[in-house]
Design goal:
Blueprint (H helix, E strand, L loop, with lengths): L6 H8 L1 H13 L10 H18 L5 H10 L4 H7 L3 H15 L4 H12 L11 H12 L26
Length: about 160
């Protein structure tokens, strides 16, 4: 085969809770001029995590990488609607999805810690998964080609002014 099948990731993609949360984020961001957090972003983050994992020889399970990436921003609907930080809301939404999709308690804990800390440089813990999620999330943004870059509230030193891999 050309690639490996990630059955649990496929279950996440088909999960009603994931689909509802993703649709809500996409609906609420339809007029957003800045970076959006739909499936394209989530897959970009997952693919960057996979590349970093391979380049650094970390040997992390691709399903855990993809699960963390796909679920890291699903709390944005709660943030927009109720002011709950999206990383906190995301942990609450992602836990049951991970359980339903067959992730072990240890895997869930690691993924949820990474999601909950994905806005901090350490990824909320010293875990490699959290560190990769933070790095990939930040590097997935093509600020150098963004038409809304001038209005963006990200500090200039955080913006991606060149392509990094």
């Amino acid at each position: 085969p050309d690639g490996e099948v990630m059955e649990r990731v496929d279950r996440i993609l088909a999960h009603p809770g994931f689909r509802r949360a993703l649709e809500e984020v996409e609906r609420l961001e339809v007029d957003r001029m800045f970076c959006r957090h739909g499936l394209e972003h989530l897959l970009s983050v997952a693919r960057l995590m996979r590349i970093f994992n391979l380049e650094e020889g970390l040997g992390l399970d691709p399903e855990r990488l993809y699960a963390a990436a796909l679920l890291h921003d699903i709390g944005r609907g709660e943030q927009y609607a109720h002011g709950i930080p999206h990383e906190e809301a995301g942990v609450g939404l992602a836990g049951p999805i991970l359980t339903d999709c067959g992730f072990t308690a240890q895997e869930r804990d690691e993924i949820l810690t990474a999601i909950g800390g994905h806005r901090s440089r350490t990824g909320g813990s010293p875990s490699e998964l959290g560190r990769l999620l933070y790095r990939a999330d930040k590097q997935s943004r093509p600020c150098f080609a963004c038409p809304a870059s001038e209005q963006c509230n990200w500090p200039e030193e955080k913006k991606n002014h060149s392509l990094e891999y």
